[in-house]
Structures are given as C-alpha cells and as structure tokens.
C-alpha cells in the first residue's frame, strides 16, 4: 500500500472528533485554520466554539467591532491573526457577498491566508488536490524520507513543498491532508513518537538510521531580545484606573494596557525619575508600591518581556495624554488586553 493510502487508513481509524471535521463550510474551516495557526488543538478548541457561537456566519463576524473580536481572541496570542480575521470577514461579506473563493490560488488573496491555510480550505471544502505543509507535515516527511535539509531554510521549504505535491492523494485530498497532520500530532510526535506501532515503520528512513530524535533539522532561532516593561497602575479614589490603547505595528496592536514605562531595568527609582511618570503626577500627592518584588517574565517568539506592575494610589486624576482614558474598576474586564495583563487584572481587580 502506498504512503498516502496508509496514512488515510490510519486516520480513519484514529482521528480525533473535532467540530470542524463535521462540516465543509468554508467559513468554519477558515475560522478553525486561523485559530489553530501556532496554537495547540486543546487550546484552540474553546476559542473556535466561542467564535462560532458568537459569530455563526461570516456576516456576523464582519459586523462586529474590532474590540469585540480582540476580546474574544484574548489569550490566543499573535493578535495580528485576529485583526486579519476581522478584515477578511469584512472583505468576504461586503465584497464577495459572503461567498469564499473556491480555489487555492484565489484563497491566497485573502488577508492572513498563506500557503498552508489556502491548501487546507481548498482541499477540505472544494476537494482541490493541494498539499498542506505545516510543522507536523515537515516532521513526518523528514523522518520518513530521512531528509536533513533544514525545514526553515529557503531550500528546505522548496524541497518539502515539492515532495508534498508528489505525495498528494488526488482521489481523496481532504482526508489525506487531515491524515498527515493528525499523524504528526498523535503518532509521529516531536518527542517519544510511537515508532513500535507505526504503520510506516517498515519503510521509515529515519527509524532505520536511528535519527528519529534528530529530525527534522531546523536552523537556530534568532537571538531573543530582552525588554523591560513597567506598568503604571493608577488607583484613583479606589474606584478608577487609567488605560491606553496600543498603536503602531509592534506587539499587541489595538489591545489595551496601563500607562507604560519601557526602559532597561525594573526598579522603582527608574520609574519615579521617568518623564512619563513625572508628567502624569506633576504636583499630585501619590503613594507607589510594586505589585510583586520579582518581575514577571512573559516569553514571546523573539522577545522576553520582564514586567512589573506598580500600584500608584492618589485622590485626584493625574494629567492624561490624548490616548489615555479613565475607566471604572467594574468596566476594566470588558477591554481586550494581552494575556499578561489579563492575568494581573483578574487577580488585582476582583
């Protein structure tokens, strides 16, 4: 039996029950694929259920406010996915009358839809024979064929895509694509794969050569950058605080946060001497304490944020910048914030 048929047979016997596997509606398949980008199924599933309940159609998502979408997305990270999701929903609803493109090539034109997502939608919804290539697929192909070309190199990306096209099952592209992804997630796992009971173990080059743990090969990551975030949590008359919306193209665009002092350290002296803090509390009597002595380390893909929250109590409203606003304690939970701030808000503003 050839490679693709073995995988499909395994898949039909071992696949997990998922709500997006019970439909070929392109809206729901697209939604699930965007949510599951760089996200584990266990984490993404409740978000998928929340989105489909809150926005059952692409028109409902298109008509939502961006803040609603970001709030529902809160905790999933990589927030550009949520902004692109919203923008694409508007485009499909308003420009395409709610009808998603029906080919891989046309799907690629949608914002936030890359090669992998377009392949998944085209094969599952429209039976187009285009292969998906994600982390799971790289791992299966690398191990089975004994390929040592780095998966994140230009050469590797081309080589794996070419191989994936050659292996594609044209009779059943939907099940084949889902099979190879599921196989990588459950059977050919990153650590301790089940090689003894693997249906491909009699012809797996990686297993023959004893290189399962070494494959796939990946070029070293970029150096991680350290950043020092110091949040100013103003407590005004024990009723109100101050928040601001992040702008620009950096992390957390469109989300809310407390006034921020970013410098090269986390200590009280540097905060009190900072121009942002001094300008806000100019002439106002205040009391300042650190929420926790040690900074919270929040790890993103290419940067680690060393974060401290400073509680600043005062009885009058300090001077605000144009992008800042006063909110009541009871309302602060309604704003979309990064998960780092969400955890602090849940513990502090109970």
From TrEMBL:
Keywords: 4Fe-4S, DNA damage, DNA repair, Glycosidase, Hydrolase, Iron, Iron-sulfur, Metal-binding
Enzyme Commission no: 3.2.2.31
Cofactor note: Binds 1 [4Fe-4S] cluster.
HhH-GPD domain span: 35-186
The keyword DNA repair belongs to this UniProt entry's keyword annotation: yes
Region forming the signal peptide: none
Cofactors: [4Fe-4S] cluster
Classification via Pfam families: HHH, HhH-GPD, NUDIX_4
Catalysis: reaction(s): Hydrolyzes free adenine bases from 7,8-dihydro-8-oxoguanine:adenine mismatched double-stranded DNA, leaving an apurinic site
Enzyme type, top EC level: hydrolase
Record SUPFAM superfamilies: DNA-glycosylase, Nudix
Function (record text): Adenine glycosylase active on G-A mispairs. MutY also corrects error-prone DNA synthesis past GO lesions which are due to the oxidatively damaged form of guanine: 7,8-dihydro-8-oxoguanine (8-oxo-dGTP).
Membership in a protein family: Belongs to the Nth/MutY family.
Name recorded for this polypeptide: Adenine DNA glycosylase
Organism whose genome encodes this protein: Aquimarina celericrescens
Gene designation per UniProt: mutY
């Amino acid at each position: 039996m050839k490679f693709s048929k073995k995988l499909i047979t395994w898949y039909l016997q071992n696949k997990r029950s998922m709500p997006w596997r019970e439909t070929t509606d392109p809206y729901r398949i697209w939604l699930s694929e965007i949510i599951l980008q760089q996200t584990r199924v266990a984490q993404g599933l409740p978000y998928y259920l929340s989105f489909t309940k809150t926005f059952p159609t692409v028109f409902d998502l298109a008509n939502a406010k961006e803040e609603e979408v970001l709030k529902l997305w809160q905790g999933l990270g990589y927030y550009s996915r949520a902004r692109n999701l919203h923008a694409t929903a508007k485009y499909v609803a308003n420009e395409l009358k709610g009808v998603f493109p029906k080919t891989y090539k046309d799907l690629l034109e949608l914002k936030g839809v890359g090669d992998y997502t377009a392949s998944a939608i085209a094969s599952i919804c429209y039976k187009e024979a285009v292969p998906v290539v994600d982390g799971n697929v790289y791992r299966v192909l690398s191990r089975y064929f004994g390929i040592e070309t780095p998966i994140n190199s230009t050469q590797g990306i081309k080589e794996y895509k070419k191989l994936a096209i050659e292996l594609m099952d044209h009779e059943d592209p939907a099940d084949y694509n889902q099979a190879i992804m599921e196989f990588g997630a459950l059977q050919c796992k990153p650590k301790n794969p089940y090689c003894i009971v693997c249906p491909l173990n009699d012809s797996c080059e990686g297993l023959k050569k004893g290189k399962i743990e070494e494959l796939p090969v990946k070029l070293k990551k970029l150096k991680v950058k350290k950043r020092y975030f110091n949040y100013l949590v103003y407590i005004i008359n024990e009723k109100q605080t101050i928040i601001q919306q992040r702008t620009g193209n950096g992390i957390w665009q469109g989300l809310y946060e407390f006034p921020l002092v970013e410098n090269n350290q986390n200590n009280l002296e540097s905060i009190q001497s900072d121009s942002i803090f001094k300008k806000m509390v100019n002439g106002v009597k205040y009391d300042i304490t650190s929420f926790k002595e040690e900074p919270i380390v929040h790890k993103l893909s290419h940067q680690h944020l060393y974060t401290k929250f400073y509680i600043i109590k005062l009885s009058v409203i300090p001077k605000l910048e144009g992008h800042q606003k006063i909110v009541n304690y009871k309302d602060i939970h309604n704003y979309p914030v990064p998960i780092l701030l969400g955890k602090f808000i849940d513990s502090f503003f109970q």
